[in-house]
Write a structure and sequence with these properties.
By secondary structure, the chain is α+β, with helices and mostly antiparallel strands. It is built from seven helices and ten strands. The strands form two sheets. Strands 3, 4, 5, 6, 7, 8, 9 and 10 form an eight-stranded antiparallel sheet that branches. Strands 1-2 form a two-stranded antiparallel sheet. It is rod-shaped.
């Protein structure tokens, strides 16, 4: 058999067709995804993604956005210190107003003329109270002198006491040796008492002067009662003296005199005391 010859197309033939691509059936077109893209707006950046992609979870993106919004602006400590120094310098070199300058000048002038603080001086040594100081000093001297006279000048102290008591009392011109006045002269209404004490022991006696209307008979009755009838009567220079056991009593010029104590004075000592008034 003879081989068949290939049929050659003729020009102008009705059956003429374009050559087919031999790879047309082998290559597949990629599938077109018609799913629309979604865009999420965040505080850091905009993320465009498909709604089918689950890799970016919404919770993570929300946490990132919240953390970024919570971060506050913090300046460095050195920057803060520098800003503080600048503010201080600005306040220092800030020009003062006319009112402030005037007030400062007045304050400086008042400070210059303000008197220096003086030390507190006791008013007795203060010159402002010169007259008062003289009066106070005089009163103090009078009191001291009065105390000295009252304690160490019995006659004066008896005169003061008698004027206070309202009677004419006197200090005896005689008292036994070895005895001295003991304490101040005491007085009450119509009565003055002078106390004496021995310089060597505790023996004491007192001379009491009392305003009285008694006579010698009344005094005798009183002494007789106190001594149980054991007394001695002595008459001298118009005085009638009743004595017993170192005690005695007599009346003269409307004043009753009485000696009492444990000094055991003798009759001669009692007589000399009575005659010394």
């Amino acid at each position: 058999m003879k081989p068949e010859k290939p049929i050659q197309p003729t020009i102008g033939s009705v059956n003429s067709q374009k050559p087919k691509n031999i790879y047309q059936n082998d290559i597949k077109k990629p599938a077109v995804n018609n799913t629309p893209l979604t865009r999420r707006t965040g505080s850091m950046m905009d993320i465009a993604r498909s709604s089918k992609i689950k890799h970016f979870a919404p919770k993570i993106i929300n946490k990132i956005s919240q953390a970024s919004s919570d971060i506050k602006h913090m300046s460095h400590p050195i920057a803060q210190r520098t800003a503080h120094i600048r503010q201080s310098i600005a306040r220092t070199i800030q020009p003062k107003t006319m009112q402030e300058t005037k007030e400062n000048a007045i304050k400086d002038a008042m400070d210059r003329i303000k008197p220096a603080p003086t030390k507190k001086v006791f008013f007795l040594f203060n010159k402002k109270y010169k007259i008062m100081n003289i009066i106070i000093a005089s009163l103090l001297l009078i009191l001291v002198a009065g105390a000295i006279v009252y304690f160490y000048m019995p006659g004066v102290s008896v005169a003061i006491a008698s004027s206070q008591a309202g009677i004419k009392a006197n200090f005896p011109g005689y008292y036994p040796d070895g005895y001295s006045i003991n304490g101040p002269v005491s007085f009450s209404n119509g009565e003055v008492i002078i106390n004496f004490k021995s310089n060597t022991n505790n023996n004491k006696f007192a001379i009491k002067q009392t305003k009285s209307s008694w006579d010698s008979s009344a005094v005798r009755n009183k002494v007789s009662k106190d001594s149980s009838g054991e007394f001695i009567t002595t008459e001298e220079k118009g005085l009638t003296i009743f004595s017993y056991k170192g005690n005695a009593a007599w009346v003269n010029g409307g004043i009753l005199y009485a000696i009492n104590g444990d000094a055991n004075l003798s009759g001669d000592q009692i007589r000399r005391i009575a005659n010394s008034f």
